[in-house]
Write a structure and sequence with these properties.
Elements lengths: L1 H73 L2 E8 L2 E4 L5 E6 L6 E2 L4 E5 L2 H33 L7 H33 L2 E3 L4 E4 L8 E2 L6 E5 L4 E7 L11 E6 L6 E8 L30 E10 L11 E6 L8 H11 L14
Antiparallel strand pairs: 1-10, 1-14, 2-9, 3-5, 3-8, 4-7, 5-6, 7-9, 10-13, 11-12, 11-14, 12-13
Keywords: Coiled coil, Membrane, Transmembrane, Transmembrane helix
Family: Belongs to the membrane fusion protein (MFP) (TC 8.A.1) family.
Organism: Methylorubrum aminovorans
Length: 359
């Protein structure tokens, strides 16, 4: 009987457990399900945020890559610019010892100024001799013309026709000799003038090594003058930028040592540069340099730029390096890229180089 009572009690207890467990679990399942729903939404939102951020970064990187490509590859500007100038190598047209030097190194000179003087003694004597020769030829011509006139006035009874012709010809020879003497005098005077070697341009004497006592050889340059009216800038542009460069386009040149830029105009484009593969070998065969097919280096083409304006504080020196920008430096880039560059670099849209300080 005791075992039956215990079994009956266990059955009742098992029959009552499910309703108790169900009642005890229902208030716990509600908060857990809500927490799981909120957590899922948060994870989904975070995933979307990460995807959006990644897409934004990729878009910004693509735009930045395009802007950098435009700026460094196709935009018409270069840091490889050089200030150039014409240098006059002056050589004497007469030879002699330098007796006077009238300039110093780096001195400003004007066209026609005397630079140095060659010993004029020999040339002065040449002028005196030529003048004396003219007097001699004039006297001889006078005598020959008088003789010819007398023979011409005689009849054929007193003289023959042949004799008349001989005296007339002698007078013509004397006349030609006088013209020769006059030419020699003109040449002697010109040579005496040339003993004073003069500057042919406005400029500045450079690298002066000539001294008094040096012997000046005819046709051998011994003094050099920089033509200060001939400065220009050569910009060496990569061939990828040449499509946006045209003669007549405005240009701005920033020298490395000065803050104020120079302004100028594209004057011309070089139509040829040296080709290494065009050279032949010692056997007359083509000399072709090996290249990597996946690397192509852009050739640089010289562009001559005329200087229109030089700031007062800038002293031009041939050989200076310059950054050269043609036009506004943007080339054929789209407007949105130009606006983005203007926003990034602080230049107003459509502004021309060198106009920031204009009135």
């Amino acid at each position: 009987m005791k075992r039956e009572d215990e079994a009956g009690a266990d059955d009742r207890n098992r029959g009552q457990l499910p309703p108790d467990d169900a009642l005890s679990d229902e208030p716990q399942r509600g908060p857990r399900a809500g927490a799981k729903s909120v957590s899922g939404r948060r994870r989904y939102g975070g995933r979307l945020l990460r995807l959006a951020a990644t897409g934004l970064i990729l878009a910004f990187a693509a735009v930045a890559a395009y802007v950098v490509w435009q700026f460094y590859v196709t935009a018409p500007w270069t840091r490889d610019g050089r200030v150039r100038v014409q240098v006059v190598n002056l050589a004497p047209q007469v030879a002699g010892t330098v007796v006077e030097l009238r300039v110093t190194d780096n001195q400003e000179v004007k066209k026609g100024d005397v630079l140095y003087v060659i010993d004029p003694f020999d040339y002065q004597e040449a002028v005196v001799s030529a003048e004396a020769e003219i007097k001699n030829r004039e006297a001889d011509l006078s005598v020959k013309q008088a003789q010819s006139a007398r023979r011409a006035a005689l009849s054929t009874v007193s003289t023959s026709v042949e004799e008349k012709q001989q005296f007339a010809g002698t007078a013509k020879i004397a006349e030609a000799a006088l013209e020769t003497a006059r030419s020699q005098l003109s040449q002697a005077k010109k040579n005496l003038e040339r003993t004073q070697v003069r500057s042919t341009v406005n400029g500045r004497v450079t690298n002066l090594l000539l001294r008094v006592g040096d012997y000046a050889q005819t046709g051998t340059a011994n003094i050099r003058v920089i033509d200060t009216d001939s400065f220009w800038v050569d910009g060496y542009f990569e061939e990828t930028k040449m499509a946006h460069i045209r003669p007549g386009a405005p240009a701005e040149m920033a020298l490395m040592g000065y803050g104020a830029p120079l302004r100028g105009t594209v004057e011309s484009l070089t139509l040829g540069i040296s080709t290494a593969n065009a050279a032949t070998s010692t056997q007359g065969l083509p000399n072709v340099d090996p290249v990597y097919t996946w690397v192509r280096l852009a050739q640089r083409v010289p562009v001559r730029i005329r200087i229109d304006h030089v700031p007062p504080e800038v002293t031009l020196v041939a050989g200076m390096t310059a950054t050269v920008v043609v036009g506004d430096g943007r080339g054929g880039q789209p407007d949105w890229v130009a606006s983005l560059r203007g926003w990034l670099f602080g230049r107003a849209d459509g502004a021309q180089p060198g106009t920031e300080g204009k009135n």
